[in-house]
Design a protein that fits this description.
This protein is an alpha+beta fold. About 25% of the residues lie in helices and about 25% in strands.
Length: about 220
C-alpha cells in the first residue's frame, strides 16, 4: 500500500468520525403522517375561571397551555394509565419548563408536537423516562383519539423526556407504541387553529405557536 493510499484511508476515516460525532440521535419523533387520513395575571385567572377552571397553587391533574394567541388548551392528565409520564409532566410544569417553548412540528389531521426547549425537535429535558406503552411492557390502554396527549420519543422505547404531541385526529396506529397520558378537555378549537398553520416541507411552522405560559388549574367551584 503506497503512502497516498494510506493517507486517503486515514482522511476518509477521520471525516466519517467527525460526521458521526456531529449527528444527533436524540430526536424524539413519531411516525410520518399516515396516508389516510397569539395581560396580566388577574386577567389570565379570570379568563380561566370563566371557562370553568381556576389557577391552582399546587400540582393538579389539569394543565393549562396558555398560547401566545391568548387562547387556552386545557389538558386532563391520566395517572392511572401512565403514572411515570404524568409525574414527569407535572414536574416539568411545576418548574415552568414549558413556558416559552413552541410547537415545532405540525401535521394537520395527525398531530401537533412541542416541548423541545431548542425548538428543533432534537432536544428535551435532562431526564428520560420509562416508555409507558404496551409494547414496552406497560398496560397503558389509553387510545390515541382526537385530543389525546402523548409522549414523543426516539426509536428507543425509554427515551421520552419533555416532548409531547396532541392528536389532531384519531391516530390509533400509535396505540401500544406511544405513551398516551392525558386528553384535551378544553381548547380543541385552538389545536385546530394551530394545525392549520402554514408549514415547510419538514412540517415546521412558518410562525411557530408559543406556549406563553403553562400552569396548573383545577375545576372552579
Amino acid at each position: 500500500m503506497n503512502k497516498r493510499l494510506i493517507l486517503t484511508v486515514i482522511l476518509t476515516a477521520a471525516l466519517l468520525f467527525v460526521a458521526a460525532a456531529c449527528q444527533k440521535t436524540d430526536t424524539p419523533q413519531i411516525p410520518s403522517e399516515p396516508g389516510a387520513s397569539e395581560e396580566g395575571n388577574e386577567t389570565e385567572m379570570t379568563k380561566a375561571q370563566a371557562e370553568g377552571y381556576k389557577r391552582a397553587e399546587e400540582a393538579t391533574l389539569w394543565v393549562n397551555l396558555r398560547m401566545d394567541s391568548g387562547q387556552d388548551i386545557v389538558i386532563e392528565l391520566d395517572p392511572e394509565s401512565a403514572p411515570v409520564t404524568v409525574a414527569n409532566f407535572q414536574k416539568l410544569v411545576g418548574e415552568s419548563f414549558y413556558d416559552g417553548i413552541i410547537f415545532h412540528r405540525i401535521i394537520p389531521g395527525f398531530m401537533i408536537q412541542g416541548g423541545d426547549p431548542s425548538g428543533t425537535g432534537r432536544g428535551g429535558s435532562e431526564e428520560q423516562i420509562k416508555g409507558e406503552f404496551t409494547s414496552n411492557g406497560v398496560d397503558n390502554r389509553l387510545p390515541h383519539d382526537r385530543g389525546t396527549v402523548s409522549m414523543a420519543r426516539t426509536p428507543v422505547p425509554d427515551s421520552a423526556s419533555s416532548q409531547f404531541f396532541i392528536c389532531h385526529g384519531d391516530s390509533h396506529f400509535l396505540d401500544g407504541d406511544y405513551a398516551a397520558f392525558g386528553r384535551v378537555v378544553q381548547g380543541m378549537d385552538e389545536v385546530d387553529r394551530i394545525a392549520a398553520l402554514r408549514t415547510n416541507a419538514s412540517d415546521y411552522p412558518e410562525t411557530p405557536p408559543v406556549m406563553a405560559e403553562v400552569f396548573f388549574v383545577e375545576p372552579a367551584a
